User: Which sequence fits this backbone?
């Protein structure tokens, strides 16, 4: 009886090892295909992103020079800079 039990356990180990090998061989190509498929949409998105024009940052020097030009006023009309400042803040 002991000998039959040992033989059954050895056979079970062999079957388990065989099944594990066949499962690992079959599952490897499937994962490779899914990785390729997921890489394709990413590649398309990257190529699309290259064609989109990127937003340009506004030049701070241009903005400062415009403000300096607006501050040239005569002494007679002291309210002019405040009004222009308020208009700029509203925009």
Assistant:
């Amino acid at each position: 009886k002991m000998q039959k039990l040992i033989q059954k356990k050895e056979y079970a180990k062999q079957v388990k090892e065989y099944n594990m090998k066949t499962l690992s061989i079959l599952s490897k190509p499937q994962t490779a295909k899914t990785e390729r498929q997921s890489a394709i949409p990413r590649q398309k998105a990257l190529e699309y992103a290259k064609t989109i024009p990127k937003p340009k940052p506004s030049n701070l020097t241009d903005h400062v020079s415009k403000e300096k030009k607006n501050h040239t006023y005569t002494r007679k009309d002291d309210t002019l800079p405040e009004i222009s400042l308020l208009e700029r803040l509203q925009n």
